[in-house]
Amino acid sequence: MSPSWFDDLWITDATPVPCGMSRETVKRSDLAGHAGYGYCASHSSFYWGLKLYLVCAGDGMPIMWCLANPKLGEREVVTALLERDHHLIRSGQILLADKGFSGAQFAATTAAMGLRLLRPDRKDETYKNGNLGGVRQWIESVNHTLKGQLGLEEHGGRTTHGVFARVAQRVLAMAAGIWHNWNIGATAKRSLSPTTTDPFKESII
Q1: What is d(CA 178, CA 167) in angstroms, rounded to the nearest whole number?
Q2: What pTM does this model have?
Q3: What pLDDT does residue 115 have?
Q4: Which domains are assigned to the chain?
């Protein structure tokens, strides 16, 4: 457990976890019924797979996470995640999110849980928080660690249990790296050794 676990600021976001490229793979996959089609904005393309939802501390230390069908609404999934792990929420906790988590119902739900939702304003909204100084880049940087340093998109899972296990490996590896960097006093808390790039490449599940 790192010092950031006790911070009052949490950030949340979702990122694609592709599980197949070809139509034949989709037809024969054991993930049928769990995975689905979604759109990946960073690659400007559609994909078939799951979506990783992560709530973490400001330095990226995972607090709670789950995998969901990309067809499900982001606010719906995060609401279910927060309700499931509501015992981790402290009154007055700030939840920093992007514009995709706008909506009166989601704001009311998080407020009822004791969370203060903070997100950039949409263009069609009255000024409240502004653009929060490029908060999107900060939030996405956590996903970049999972994808760039830990090979999230190249997990290689073929079954439901396999995908969940491989994603869990990467989330735990990031948590361990952050904890280690806190203990050695490293400035960049999510910086992993170059030798740990996709350390799970050879594992078969």
Answers
A1: 17
A2: 0.85
A3: 93
A4: 3-196 (3.30.420.10)
